[in-house]
Write a structure and sequence with these properties.
Elements lengths: L9 H10 L23 H15 L7 E5 L5 H8 L3 E6 L2 H9 L3 E4 L13 E7 L8 H5 L3 H15 E14 L5 H4 L11 H12 L9 H6 L3 E8 L1 H21 L1 H13 L1 H13 L2 H4 L11 E10 L9
Helix pairs in contact: 2-3, 8-12, 11-12
Length: 318
Amino acid sequence: MESEKNIASKTVVRCYDLLDASISGGVEDFTDGKYFGNSNLSYEKAQENQAEWLLDKIGCKKGSVILDVGCGNGRLLKAAKSRGANAIGITISEPQVNRAKVKGLDARLMDYRLIPEDWDNYFDGIIANGSLEHFVQVKDALSGRQDQIYKEMFRIFYRILKSGGRLVTTAIHFNQNVNSKEIIKGSEAFKRGTSNFHFSKVLLDDFGGWYPAQGQLENNAKGFFTLKESEDGTEDYQITSEYWLAEMRKQILINPKVWFSLLGKLMRYPKAMINMTDNLLFSQSWMWQFRPQDNGETPTKLFRDVWIKDDKTLSHHD
C-alpha cells in the first residue's frame, strides 16, 4: 500500500529538510498551536491542544482508522494512538518518516496524489493540518490550475473516506490580492519588505506553495464535502510563529546542537539555507504574513475547517 514514487515539489521537500534543524532547538511542530485566547500558554501545550482539537473534530476514538496527510514528526499520530485509534500518516519527507517510525508510529513516504485504490472507503477521518498549502505551487497558479488541484484533492479524500466520514483541514488563505505573474519573478525582483517580496520568499523561494482564496476550498468541495464549521486561527498562528522566532534566536546563541545542525544544512544546501535563515530570522517573511499591517489586516488568514463527506451518489465521483 506504500508508494515509492514521490511527485512533490522539490522546494517543499527541501524546506522540510532545512526546517529539521529546528528540532535540535526544541521546535518540532511547524503548524499553528491552539491557545484558546491565552497567549501565555506554552508552545508545547498549544500544540497538544491543536492535536486534540483536530482529533475531536473527526470523532477519533478507540478503533477509529484515521489518516494524517502531511504527518510531520508524528504528534497527531501519537495522540491518535493514545486514544486507541489506528493512525496512518503520510509525508513527502523521508527524515520525518524515519523519525515517526522510531517513535513506533505508522508513517509512510507518500504523496497524497498517489494514495492507492486499496485505501478506498478505508478511513473514518482524515486530517490535513497545514499540508494543503503546498499542494498548489506558484507555477500552477500561473497556469490557472488551482481549482483543478483542489477538486482532485477533495475527490481523493472522498474516495478513501467511509460513509459519514469527516475531514479537517487547517490552511493559510490569502487575505489580499496576490498576482502569480509577479511572485514567479522571485524575491530578488522586489524591494525588501514589500508584499511581493515577502510572498515570493515564502511561496516561491523558501517553502514552496500557493494559498487558496477565501471561499475557494468550499467552492471546490461541492459534490464531495459539505463545510460544517470554520474558525479563524490567524492569531494562534501569529503567536506560534513569533515563538519560533524567539526560540530559534535563543537556541542559535546557546545550543551547540543547533550550530552543528545548521552547519550541516549549510554545507548541503548553501544558497537555500542562507535564504531560509534570512526568511525566518532577518526579513521574517514567514512571520510577516500573520502580523497586522498598517491597515489593521493580516496579509493572510488561517482557517480551521471541518468537512463532512457528502454521501449522495454523483456521476463525477466515478
